[in-house]
């Protein structure tokens, strides 16, 4: 799944030192979400267990079925390309609604396929937090009237916002006050914001853009549209039906974004289950899926700044992710977010190193035929990057006191990426010994990454498939070039050549099994539900 906020920067609604109202609001949001978080964690435990004996009803998509079920969605005139075995259920939290499974669902079940209702954002908006310039961008479109009216049903809905402002202050629900009243009041307090809103009201009137009831847009409508985009936007654009998915720290679905890789120009996003989901269980996504591997404290801050809900401290989540034992044995000092203070330093280092990876990949791609040597700047930078990440993993293990910490997963993935850059672009100048030593560092990182991913994501996630493939390729390379070096690593379940071969085979088969769960068949699914 993609995160809306990767594209729009990390600016927050408030400074690092919140005022009294901000602190009180956060405490109230934490209280409101705590019961939901705890129950959600308990519900997920059952779905993570072995469900091989469970039976799921075969879902038979058809045009008539799709037409009937999508007619009950908030936007019947703008149905998704496909709606799988799910229905929209009213909830007390999460925007008041969410998707629920209509039957037992195996991993890989396609839940939703949808094109973005608004594709992309203005160039002025990229790299920044969503602002009023995005509303200007919407108003400039030929379909502005349709967009504005459809956005009335996105969270927070026009009916909800209007009703909140009709109520007496003491009658406003606490979460509505936090997510609507406080946010709009904060924006309105800025002089420049007020002036820009007035300009947008005049521009909408000039273009004939009105509410569905025919009334002209007012300042409350403009602020609601801004909140709607911030609460529901993805970096590939604004979706209607994807907005119904609620966030979960332990989600059971993943969102695949539109892709232009290779010859396939995929214009839609799709959501699929990543593990067995029981009938009646909520279907959820993680809003901060890109990058997914950030510390709990950072996730908590971004979700509060961007959505005004608080996921609470990490204690409850550690219990159902089974991470408490490793961490608590060390007695590492933690901050209020559940992560040791050193985690922020590691995250900053990772941000810088990930930028270096992007720069190196661009450098190699821009000059693919450039002659390389051991003294080439690009090679020296790539080699230094790999060693730096390797050292960061060693230091992070000691500092975090938890071999399964989510930041270590991010470190290990970055380490694998840095080695892949060297092997892909610098193989012509790497001798057999250098290549062997790279693979000898590659394999332990991949092995440890797999263990953490299986613990956090289960056995059926697409990320797990990729890491299984990495391990398989690493074992094959060392078996071919230096079996002795492979055995010297003394990795678990790989203490003999026979064990190494068996483990390589199991990883390869696991990768193939998981890939079959996520076939690239969305076009076929869409074709099945089209009117004949």
Features:
four-stranded antiparallel beta sheet; three-stranded antiparallel beta sheet; 54% helix; 532 residues; disordered N terminus; alpha+beta; globular
How would you characterize the overall build of this protein?
This protein is an alpha+beta fold and 532 residues long. The chain is globular. The protein is built from 20 helices and eleven strands. Strand 2 (86-90) and strand 3 form a beta hairpin. Residues 1-20, 41-58 and 320-337 have low confidence and may be disordered. The strands form four sheets. The chain has a four-stranded antiparallel β-sheet with strand order 1-4-10-9.
Radius of gyration (Å):
25 Å
Number of helices: 20
- Share of helix among residues? 40-55%
Low-confidence stretches: 1-20, 41-58, 320-337
Secondary structure tally: strands? 11
Strand content: 5-15%
- What global shape is seen? globular
- As laid out across the biggest beta sheet, the strand order is 1-4-10-9
Note the main sheet: 4 strands, antiparallel
Structural class: alpha+beta
Quick structural summary:
About 55% of the residues lie in helices and about 5% in strands. It has helices spanning about 5, 20-50, 65-70, 130-140, 145-150, 160-165, 175-190, 190-205, 220-230, 295-305, 315-320, 325-330, 340-365, 375-400, 405-425, 430-455, 460-480, 485-490, 495-515, 520-530, and strands spanning about 80-85, 85-90, 95-100, 110-115, 120, 235, 235-240, 245, 255, 270-275, 285.
